[in-house]
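Shipment paperwork, digital attachment
Item: protein structure file
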Amino acid sequence: MFGYVAQGYPHRRIAGLLFSLLLVPLCSAEVLRSSNEENGLETWHFIDGDIEIELVQRLPDQTRALLMNHAFSKAVIEQLALGCMFQTIIRNSGKSLTGQAVSIDLTQWRMQHAGHTGSILLKEPLLASWSDEDADPAAKLVIRWGMFPTRQEYLPGDYNWGLTAYGIPPGSRFDLFVTWQEGETQHSGEIRDIVCAPDVDKLK
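Attachment content:
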């Protein structure tokens, strides 16, 4: 399974992940854009207050390889593989020392692509749209547990990872508008010029 929850431990970066850093100021936030020297996949790392959001490109073939091991129809495999998926990590760093929880609700996130603004893909409507011929119950569990939780609360030091999907073609560019809550305060931010991985065997 590719989703995971950890509590009370700081996230450790995979060695060699962050290279060629580009710092983009966004109000009080910052976004680090980096490229993995070994495979060429890019990462966008959003930091604002106690929240950190990382989006790591995922090649369509990586998603195909995962789903082909389960009872998904070919159409569903291609729908997801070509749907601009990112490995996503969200954490509450707790660096403010306030002890406040951070909450996210992906139904409130918005993306802008080709002049249009809309919601990101969520697992609940995806699962509801598939028949048992599209995906059997065991296959649906892969998506239910593997895609990022739609709503979640993080205490200081908590983090989670899973997949988020944006439903646009490989190689597309988009801006992502994120919202979260720290304690009783609602916050928002923007990650600009995110690029979906192309549909190729490998980048390097």
